[in-house]
Design brief:
binds flavin-adenine dinucleotide; mainly alpha; EC 4.1.99.3; DNA-binding; DNA_photolyase_2; six-stranded mixed beta sheet; single chain; Serine Threonine Protein Phosphatase 5, Tetratricopeptide repeat; DNA Cyclobutane Dipyrimidine Photolyase, subunit A, domain 3; Rossmann fold; about 500 residues; DNA damage; binds ligand FO1; about 5% strand; 6 strands; Crypto/Photolyase_FAD-like_sf
Length: about 500
Amino acid sequence: MPSALCASKKRYRALTRGTKPEAGPNAPVVYWLSRDQRVRDNWALLRACDVARANDAPVVIAFNLLTKFLGAGARQFGFMLRGLRELEGAAKAKNVTFAMTYGDEPAIAIDALAKKIGAKTIVCDFSPLRDGLKWRKELAALCEARSAHCEECDAHNVVPCWEASDKLEVGARTLRGRLAKRYPEFLHEFPEVPDDLPKYSGPALDAVKWDDIIAEALSRGQAVPEVTWAIPGETAAHAVLDDFVNSRMKLYEKRNDPSKPQALSGLSPWLHFGQISGQRCALEAKKAVGKASPPAYESFFEELVVRRELSDNFCYYSPKYDQIEGQKYDWAKDTLRLHASDKRPYLYSLEELERAKTHDDLWNAAQRELRYGGKMHGFCRMYWAKKILEWTESPEQALKFAIYLNDTYSLDGRDPSGYVGCMWSIVGVHDQGWKEREVFGKIRYMAYDSTKKKFSIPDYIARVNALVKAAKADFKSGESSHAANPGLFKINVPAANKRKATEEAQ
Ligand code: FAD
Ligand code: FO1
């Protein structure tokens, strides 16, 4: 038997009871790909390959296309589908067939596909969000009913979420040490996907009509159009990582200055859709540490691994992760309740917020960056969410509005880090109590006057104005201009990966 590619058995676990992985030349292994949309550096795909290799079976990657997902529009569906189109080609190069199913009942669709092709083993990737958990549970029940085997493999986190901790962590302080103990076991290089797997030769699978499904998704979600600067897919993701670790990580200590956006990696859209592995980013950053400085690398690692994996921990162990009750600690819920009827200095409707019509030029710029650029600077996200608490009728309304705006406009929204970011800002999750004040109670406050001492607000506003102008021009022309990228970094990809060239090639 070949040695295992997914060497650690702790990365995956069975979702069905009383079954074991079975496969054969006429019984392919299905990898149901959802959160980790890549071929390289994907533990779930590697696990599927292990089961296949041990049984001389082919691997089929199945993706179920939803019609709606947490408010995503053309911006996010376009990014995802264009990335998947590239993935289909990368999978084919490894003898792995890509199949698409459709509709808002993914468990039923994936199980039907598995039955059709005679698959008795399905490997899923992992998500701590409630819909992802529900889908996988439903699929496991369907598999169990026909004695098929279903397992999940955490391909998103360095340390699998359930291995990192078996409980809700207080904060980064408590998770950091737990993760560090497990790096020797989990933070290592990835093997290649083998290219000698047998080719799938079962019942014919429908070819994916990419142009049609992309056109349909864009038309359905046209209220929030695509941002053309963000080149989707694995190749672009690696180009962003390469540019960051080799040329920009040295700036990372300036990450809290929104007028210097190149200091941030800009990786979150690709990480969110799993077009790149967080573990790959951590490995490459470590290799490039000599080009930056140890503190820059360490701060990046802290955000990329500790904070990101803390978000999964929160959503997994706090099922109400997007509601005030999701905060476990009474001090925060009590203080918000006590100040719920405090007079707000301003009150804005959702529409006023959405259209950036507040009295605050910094807040309006941040909202415009989100709306037109598809990604808000990390520092501004905290200020932006806290001001929504200050200017809406209640903490419940503030949280609802913040999550709605983030999920609707951000490429990286609908993500554990987004729910935790909003919960940190508005509900004090992973934070401590601060000096009590109106509206916020003991929740940490951020003031315009102190923020303006930290960076040049006029420089940030000027940059966002240029971004909005470029984004509007791109929208008309279909071009992809540098100034429209909120991170102002270059994405060095072959011409074929660029938007216009790709479409002309169709
Ligand atoms: P970098 O600073 O280069 O960080 C690299 C990676 O580390 C990020 O891509 C991300 O995966 C991770 N990371 C960085 N900061 C955090 C953090 N505070 N918590 C968890 N992971 C982090 N992040 C999202 O991915 N999606 C969201 O929808 C989202 N919404 C947010 C909303 C609010 C109100 C707040 C306060 C934060 C939110 N964040 C979100 C976290 C963070 O702001 C973004 O991850 C970051 O700005 C992404 O840009 P970057 O990749 O250039 O960041
Ligand atoms: N995952 C899917 O399996 N199918 C989809 O159609 C799909 C759409 C989608 C749109 C926006 C977005 O941000 C993510 C999307 N995802 C989709 C991925 C989804 O986040 C993951 O499947 C999560 O694991 C769900 O909890």
